[in-house]
Amino acid sequence: MDTLLGIDFGTGGCKIILIDAAGRVLDSRSDEYPTIHQKPGWGEQNPADWYAVMCRLLRDMSPSLRGGIVAVALDSYSHGAVLLDEKLKVIRPTIIWTDQRSVKECEYLKNNHFDLIFQTAYQAPTPTWTLPQMLWLKNNEPEHFRRIRHISFVKDYIRFLLTGELACDSIESQGTLFWDMKNKRWSAELCALAGLPVKTLPRIGNPADIAGKITAQAAAATGLPEGIPVVMGASDSAVEDYAAGAIEPGQCILKLATAGNVNVMTAEAHPHLKTLTYSHVVPGLWYSVAATNAAAICQRWFRDNFCGAEVEQAQRENINVYELISREAESAPVGANGVFFHPYLMGERSPYWDPNLRGSFTGLSMGTKRADLSRALMEGVAFSLLDCRRVLDEMKITIAQIRLIGGGAKSSLWSRIVCDVFGKELVRPESSDASFGAALLAGVGTGIFDNERDAVAKCVKIKDVLVPDKRNHEKYGKLFQTYLGIHDALSSVYNNLNT
Predict the structure, then answer these.
(1) Is 13 helix (H, G, I), strand (E, B) or coil?
(2) Is the pTM of this model over 0.85?
(3) Domain locations in the chain?
(4) For 72, 107, 439, 469, which has the most beta carbons within 10 A of its beta carbon?
């Protein structure tokens, strides 16, 4: 049986998925890698960790399954620049998209070059983007900056290790703030703002192009068949939308993963100061993104810091620790007995674009239990996603259907909370992981599917449709106003703390 492999490098870890030409999942594995937080608001990862986790997952797969793979495609989170020297060796850890250290550089870019940046790249400069990150590096680590000869990105660097070819896709490039959206090329003017020559950046291909083949060295490290094609792939957000079957204008993706996204598919680009603008995997389609920095990762933070007993119980009973956390949260009522959570653990993007915001639990009393905190966390993330949607409503972008994806969507309770907060039907696809979308692209690039839409028609299936509880929606409508009021009251406090 010919099979297709998708490999996803998310903010928190790597996931691999193996499917057949009908979209049936034959194997799926995942594991985490660490993020280094040297200072508040900073986030870095070591590229060697990505590769080590991927190799371990692939080697754990049955040799008979690995032997049937005919094509591979990769995806990853955007904005993660891998800096290489003249010998193609990594210079320093990668500054990831959640990192907020380049606030001063963003202010400089806004004050002096905003029109050039926004009109060329369709985005406003914030610490998420590669351009201000590189400007920070130039200003603060000149010894590293001077060594840069090549810039790659997360999946593109791993693909280089697999194939020996340096390249980047036409969607990932849009996540740098170095890309000329209208002319579809690297912008010399934007590169000059960071003091980088255009030749530092990689050649560009389309997401379904074949970028190279598995080398003998990579085959030995991973167990993959030598010589099979590796398709270019794209950013995780684009590939997730695709995996969920959002391929028509008006379809909306709610992503409840490490980060939280509200992505709406459009027939043309709609650049806006409070959103992100990207082209879609399907040629000619675009999507607008309103995004919160921290969604399901908040629950991981909660797990690591407050749920040691549950982690041990999950290991003893061989169950998912998040299921135990959800069971506890379900014992608390709507509104979590007056406790509110704001998920600003890494500052915030939409709709505030404020790196000084910080996470908070408010409304605690002597009667507050951990179940209230667990539920408040879920509700707070759902409120943050609704806050993101307000920007898209202001832009008057039509939303005809909402599809819920991400690791958090696997939680029955969290999915119901999001459904009730939004007050809309939510469609949950059967398989919507980015790795699934990457596997579809592997099939498109090698001719197993006729084109991008053909792959969706043959492989994307719907798991269920959630219907909101009207009474809960009314309650959440009132609670959301309090949630907004708490943000408004605390935002000046956090700004004063960080000045």
Answers:
(1) strand
(2) yes
(3) 3-244+432-459, 291-430+469-497
(4) 439
